[in-house]
Amino acid sequence: STKLVTLQSLDPLYIRFFLPEQNLKNLFLGQKILLEIEAYPDEEFVSEITAINAKVDESTHNIEVQATVPNSDTRLYPGVFANIRVLLPEAQDVVTVPHTAIDYTLYGNSVFVIREEGEDQDGRPILRSYRQYVTVGQQRGIDTAVEEGLRAGELVIDSGQMKLGNGTRVKIDNSVKLEQKQNLGP
């Protein structure tokens, strides 16, 4: 009953690591990761996530992740130290609006947009407000990303939505000068 040797699988290798629970929303099966091994300092090994633990560790608030590393040339060995980089999807250009422009209701999130509908007898554009349902994304500071339902360049009303309805005539008044706040540093 004396242990003489251990059996190890060399191809493929499984790497297990922990990430903070805040990263859980960005993880998915098949997601690419890069490994840097000290024995091969100028080389990166590509792998992918093959399992995500179903439970967050209650004491550390970390989630365990497993990746499968192809190792047909058996250059890598179990137990070596690796630096791991999880490749996140590339950031995309998004439309953002002030969070005050979004009307959050049980029926769905919406914004009021301004559309031009011809001209009045004096040649000024006739502007009307219309409710447009949107899918919202992340919020940073006072801005909220709109993933669907709004195109870049559309005019959005960010206050006074309670007074509006579909087809309500609106007027843009830029006569009020906004004060520029002095930047007090980071």
Q: Can you characterise this structure?
A:
With 186 residues, the protein is mostly beta strands. The chain has strands at residues 13-20, 32-37, 40-56, 62-69, 82-86, 95-98, 103-105, 108-119, 125-133, 135-140, 143-148, 155-157, 168-170. The strands form three sheets. Strands 1-4-3-2-5 form a five-stranded antiparallel sheet, with no helix packed on it. Strands 7, 8, 9, 12 and 13 form a five-stranded antiparallel sheet that branches. It has no helices and 13 strands. The mean pLDDT is 86.
Task: Describe the structure concisely for a colleague.
The chain is mainly β. The chain is 0% helix and 48% strand.
Q: Identify the quaternary structure here.
A: single chain
The DSSP helix count reads 0
Strand content: over 45%
Largest sheet: 5 strands, antiparallel
What is the N-to-C succession of helices and strands? Answer: EEEEEEEEEEEEE
Instruction: Provide the residue-averaged pLDDT.
Output: 86
In whole angstroms, how far apart are the ends?
65 Å
- Gross geometry: elongated
**Count of DSSP strands:** 13
Name the poorly predicted regions: none
**Widest sheet: strand ordering:** 1-4-3-2-5
Counting helices, strands and paired strands, the structural category is mainly beta
The helicity comes to under 10%
Rg over alpha carbons: 27 Å
